Amino acid sequence: MTLQVKALGRRFGEKQVLQQVDFSVGKGEIVSLLGTSGCGKSTVLRALAGLDSDYEGKISIPSDQRVGFIFQEPRLLPWKTVLANATFGLKGDRKENEEKARRYLELVGLKEAEKLYPRELSGGMAQRAAIARALVTEPDILLLDEPFSALDAFTKMQLQELLLKIWETFGTTIILVTHDIDEALYLSDRVLLLQGRPSTLAKDLKIALTRPRSRGSAALGKWKEDILDLLEGKEQTYDYSLVTEIGQKA
Amino acid sequence: MWKKLRTHPVLLGSLLPIVLLAAWEILSRAGVIPAYQLPAPSAILSTIITYLQDGSLQDHVLLTVYRLFVGFIIGTIAAILLGTLVGYSELAERFFDPLIQAFRSIPSLAWVPLFILWMGIGETSKVTLIAVGVFFPVYLNIVDGIRGVDRKLIEVGRMYGLDGVALVRRIILPASLPSFLTGLRSGLGLGWMFVVAAEIMGASQGLGYLLILGQNTYAPDVIIASIFLFALLGKLTDWVLKIIQKRSLHWQDTALAK
Ligand SMILES: Nc1ncnc2c1ncn2[C@@H]1O[C@H](COP(=O)(O)OP(=O)(O)OP(=O)(O)O)[C@@H](O)[C@H]1O
Ligand SMILES: [Mg+2]
């Protein structure tokens, strides 16, 4: 297990947002975190990243694992150009870093934009620059908070492919927060469903489909239907042949 | 003609000063304003030229600018060191800030007698006074700037393994640069005020000395000439800072950025 979460809870003042969230993620797994807006997905990710330490419960990540984070917003440093932002997380020789950063900028389609400042970027460009900044550091564990939600359908697809390519190359462990059920199903080995007030882990679903998956396939369509039902609370329509209960894998 | 006047960047703004200056010149020459109270602009200009020709004006200006510069640098450095520390560390804030705030509530000119008592009327007391004047606006703006740094950017720094000095250097200082530069500009403004005060309290050279000289020799032209030079120099130095500010903040996404 690369990452383990035990009885994770978080309260803000009076309001208990998360309670008793348990899950673990194996090395090289892609896991999506799904749930309605405001249910605490970002909160889970911030705790995993070590940005928030006021949680209850226990999170363990081996200390040799370098963690990368792609935030819900671009968070580029406004005083640096796109290229300088992309090299921000790299250490060592500047020339080499810039070469490497340029490769990743090209992969996210920002080759032409390296000299621009953040104020000169569109929302989607800024988000892609932020994605390049995180990917270039080649982290062992990559946490992504709705990374593609600001992008058009086509760019989104390209970047999903990029994510899979990086996963194949480096065996990155990926935890992805998303609103997009199609995205979760297309990318993930498992989908975790956060539900309730306070949120708990309602389902831990293993998406036992081989890769490469085809978008819009019947199998994914079936899954999507089932997950939508689950989100609505219509448990009974669920095809339990595909489901495993919390914490177990099929 | 009217359209050009309306749209030209300086034309409209310089109209009133020119008219007033002309009226002043005419009224002075006609003897309506007595010359021993307010000499004509041309008389003031010729005073400046006389001082320029015998080289004494250059010495006065240089010495004043030199005092200002040294005081400004010392005040700024002290403000950067303390401001960064207090802005960044809550512990340092609780330790230093109450004292600094207490000192801030002393009108800085009230220090003058004490400084003279301690350091005499030489350069040290003058430079100290200027440094004290410059310190506060710069300090306050640095502390404010650091406090105001977006938590989200600090988190980016932490995600990439920065903390302590590295975090200050790579995220906090650049992010608070706008506020720091605003502080520098108001610090410089106060610096000019204090250089006048310092030179009035006793100097044998400098623009402020010319003010006193003019007063003691009943020479309003000398007083107005040095007031004019103070204004000119103040504007000039502010302009330099403004250019630096514009250059180093070109990345800012503000309504005024082009
Ligand atoms: N710093 C904070 N202080 C107070 N409440 C907070 C704070 N951060 C989050 N919350 C609350 O915790 C809850 C979960 O927030 P979180 O940002 O994790 O939601 P989310 O699932 O990521 O939502 P979205 O999908 O809209 O991004 C929200 O109700 C929010 O009001
Ligand atoms: Mg969120």
TrEMBL record, chain A:
Keywords: ATP-binding, Nucleotide-binding, Translocase, Transport. The keyword Mitochondrion does not apply. It comes from the Bacteria. Residues 3-221 form the ABC transporter domain. GO terms for molecular function: ATP binding. This is Nitrate/sulfonate/bicarbonate ABC transporter ATP-binding protein. It comes from Terribacillus saccharophilus.
UniProtKB/TrEMBL annotation, chain B:
It is found in: Cell membrane. Residues 57-241 form the ABC transmembrane type-1 domain. Gene3D superfamilies: MetI-like. The chain crosses the membrane at residues 65-88, 100-121, 127-143, 190-212, 218-241. SUPFAM superfamilies: MetI-like. The keyword DNA damage does not apply. Keywords: Cell membrane, Membrane, Transmembrane, Transmembrane helix, Transport. Its main location: membrane. InterPro entries: MetI-like (IPR000515), MetI-like_sf (IPR035906). It is a multi-pass membrane protein. PANTHER family: ABC TRANSPORTER PERMEASE PROTEIN, ALKANE SULFONATE ABC TRANSPORTER-RELATED, MEMBRANE SUBUNIT. Belongs to the binding-protein-dependent transport system permease family. This is ABC transporter permease. It comes from Terribacillus saccharophilus. The lineage of its organism: Bacteria, Bacillati, Bacillota, Bacilli, Bacillales.
